[in-house]
Design brief:
The chain is an alpha+beta fold. 20% of the residues lie in helices and 30% in strands.
Length: 181
């Protein structure tokens, strides 16, 4: 199956997939009318616990130089760095032919991964990564290598693939719950 070439449609498809998964976990889902950085808000109807979710979608494809399969996501440095009363969780969706591969990473974990990567000693060809302060743009590219164990920024991401962080527990009761007879 070919994926539609329309970027807006592809991105929206990723957002709807993310919302579907969150609804299946019992969260109420709200989409802001004006998107100023947060794609989805999820609410536990029992206690009104709220989380912000940033959804990023990418096609899996071969790297031009290495041929290795990977997916790249453009993140906002400012969003990654900012703390907020309502926690932010990234849902990175990599489309592989007819299915999504899902990486769910809380903001603080993703920031820690990036900071470790930037601070690690570098060797070999290529430029060292820019710190947030040295960057000239807000764009920050996260490329996940998908051959073998998924890796990005020098870290293995297995714990985040197809898993849910404790910040997004399954909501099993509350309004709308269907009880067995």
């Amino acid at each position: 199956m070919a994926v539609n070439e329309k970027r807006t449609h592809f991105g929206r498809a990723g957002e709807y997939f993310a919302m579907s998964e969150l609804l299946l976990r019992g969260w109420n889902v709200a989409v802001p009318v004006v998107d100023v950085g947060d794609d989805v808000f999820v609410i536990d109807d029992n206690d009104k616990t709220t989380r912000r979710v940033q959804v990023k979608s990418s096609l899996i494809g071969p790297n031009d130089k290495t041929g290795r399969l990977e997916a790249s996501f453009t993140l906002s440095r400012a969003q990654l760095r900012s703390t907020h009363a309502t926690p932010l969780i990234y849902m990175l969706l990599a489309r592989e032919r007819t299915k999504w591969r899902r990486f769910v990473i809380p903001r603080d974990h993703l920031l820690e991964l990036h900071n470790s990567y930037v601070q690690a000693p570098k060797s070999g060809p290529g430029r060292p990564p820019k710190t947030h302060e040295d960057a000239k743009t807000d764009n920050l590219v996260l490329t996940i290598s998908l051959e073998g164990e998924p890796q990005a920024w020098g870290a293995v991401l297995t714990e985040f693939e197809s898993a849910w962080p404790e910040e997004l527990p399954e909501v099993r009761s509350g309004p709308g719950t269907v009880r067995a007879l």
